[in-house]
# Entry
Amino acid sequence: MITDTQPVALPAAPEQPAAPPPVTGSDPLALRANKLDLLERLADDLAHEIKNPLHSMVINLEVLKRRVARADSADEVQRYIGVLAGELERVNRRIELLLRLSRPGRGPESTTLNELVEELMELIHLEARHADATVDYLPEGAPARVFVPREPCRQAILNLVLEVIDHMERGGTLHIAIRERDGRALLAVADSATAVPAIQADANAVRLASAAALAGIVDGRVEVEDGAGIPQLVLSLPVAGR
# Structure
């Protein structure tokens, strides 16, 4: 149960020139800078995820050519064809994910926090794996609908998730929960207990400031709340029609 809402303590902007600046207000240049920063952060990981199945396909194609030339086992040929089909689908999913992140934004549309998170879930699992972390995702059973542009909402979610991943202990668990309260749809992100306090104490944790500004663009909020003794970063959006 999420209780004791506190205003989010936004960290100051970093002095290092290499760090991405936080989004401020609805400045389109700042929004684009944050989007490019996210893509730069994630593109290398996605590139490896695409390269690995491509390498597997090259190997399996070579083996398949030899088996077809001999035509001594139809079952064996079908097995290699199945591997190729699976790897092609894996590549297709990752390319679609990269395209989804890079496409220009559209206007507001009806969606849910469940849908927005699930569009990013493969990427969230990938980033968590790099921190030796597991993902505990608790979606709402009957999700409340919101009317928002998807792009800034996805950016806000990614900023919060990456901030927690970057500040959590290796081998921990990333908790993502969705629920509704008081006419607002809530997305809570945390680890066991240490990440959010570390984020609040980190003057270079600019992704939190970016997430808060992105949420403000769609009439949302980012706050720190206490969930059963565990500090959480909570994105809240107004439920459509309320």
Remarks:
- The radius of gyration is 21 Å.
- Residues 28-70 form the longest helix (43 residues).
